């Protein structure tokens, strides 16, 4: 057996739990798992769409065109209107997935904000991709501040239609994905002007390109905004209107409408945030699985990569070093927590939407707060994990052939898009303070995943150093402290907005993140309780390592409050080292439970056969188009100039 292959096989032999039992938990249900496995197989076996070693030598246009070809072929195999079918593709393709915005944001918005007649008019055309529609909300001058968008849709009483207009450069729609080339429609968010009065921002379904030629329609300026950090194949675009007329039924009219010359509202306007909730749940559900890809590569490579001899004169696998374990194993533990959170979030959001369709908004605010917290925390964590995995692979981690740099680039935008993370955290903090106010007068209003506020006295009195208790204690103390600080600051003459913006901002961000960490712990424990007995032990070890790492990363609250002393802090560190030792022999099984094939990993250093060096050399010599095309003429021209250096 090949030496490095043998190292990987020996590591597989050391795994003591049934890997398939974890795989079942990771994918949640059989349909999602089988769809994922089918997609992996199709992409790997279809030469025209399989991931290509030379991909990062291609130009951006070539990458974009290839992504369209991929989605066309996949559309023949899957129902891309079903999130269970297309969502897994986001982690399998090189580059981003075309139509993800259209299916993931615009279709849900149409379903929840449009009338049944409007959905029946446009919905079927999305399924056949006769319509691909960008979600055109963000403007050059306005991102998270939706209420101050400048684009206007003015109702014309004489013609019974709207005039859509971009009044300034700062009002140009900017950044919407799939707007640059692909979309022929856009869901445009604009201020509705009725009888000279601003009726707020509302969505309009607008055709922007000709159905036959795909050229922009008269009165529409649209195109691609250019290269970015990550998302190279996503055609983020700009869109401007010059007094562009659109019909009355362009206004999505389930909750607002114009009839007989009268403007009226119906139902709860909060539903307008529904489509953003869908995109955030997908970020939470999909992208930790891309972190799982980077961890799979890094841990396999850390087993096959040997550096420096031990006392027996044999080179050690890099994973044998405690420092390497410290880079990777706590992140592997957290990855499991993140994946479980993604599954739970899908259930919570699905339940919320079914309620909303029945005009029941009882879980809407809770869902929004949880989504905001976990979108912010998970998106940053995924980017950080890709970076740490890259660093853990040494020099080869820097190369695109490792598969890891692309994961970093394709996940980095999530920190900002669909809700900038600091803004998300501030919304979570606002809800936490609101829930805290329920305790005395309306305790029945406190939702399940926030019920820690109902047990503040017990939490503060509990002297246990059990990890879940310490996470809850940290969250509780920080929430009490920020509420107290707000009250005291307002007593000095500052108004609430001044205190919020100028006094407690850093505390608000911290308490929101502590909530995300505690929520992840709660969901982790739920999964352990429902898991097969054969994997409960390893899952508990992962949960303990996750919890310990969170506590050790942010111990200030516990130390400053006197809840843990130096000796206890030392014991926590020792407990972490003990867990690293227990989890290390299981590490390969834990990443192989994700069940990515080599094509999906897009790597030559983390392949299943454990031959990183052979694959590196093969990709470099046989797949690198820079080498294949021979010596560029510019090199000969340069070498022939006999330049005299100036010293």
From TrEMBL:
It catalyses: a 2,3-saturated acyl-CoA + O2 = a (2E)-enoyl-CoA + H2O2. InterPro entries: ACOX_C_alpha1 (IPR055060), Acyl-CoA_ox_N (IPR029320), Acyl-CoA_oxidase (IPR012258), Acyl-CoA_oxidase_C (IPR002655). It is found in: Peroxisome. Residues 19-132 form the Acyl-coenzyme A oxidase N-terminal domain. GO terms for molecular function: acyl-CoA oxidase activity; FAD binding; fatty acid binding. Residues 470-639 form the Acyl-CoA oxidase C-terminal domain. Its cofactor is FAD. GO terms for biological process: fatty acid beta-oxidation using acyl-CoA oxidase; lipid homeostasis. Residues 273-433 form the Acyl-CoA oxidase C-alpha1 domain. Pfam families: ACOX (PF01756), ACOX_C_alpha1 (PF22924), Acyl-CoA_ox_N (PF14749). GO terms for cellular component: peroxisome. The keyword Protease does not apply. It comes from the Eukaryota. Keywords: FAD, Fatty acid metabolism, Flavoprotein, Lipid metabolism, Oxidoreductase, Peroxisome. Belongs to the acyl-CoA oxidase family. This is Acyl-coenzyme A oxidase. It comes from Paramecium sonneborni.
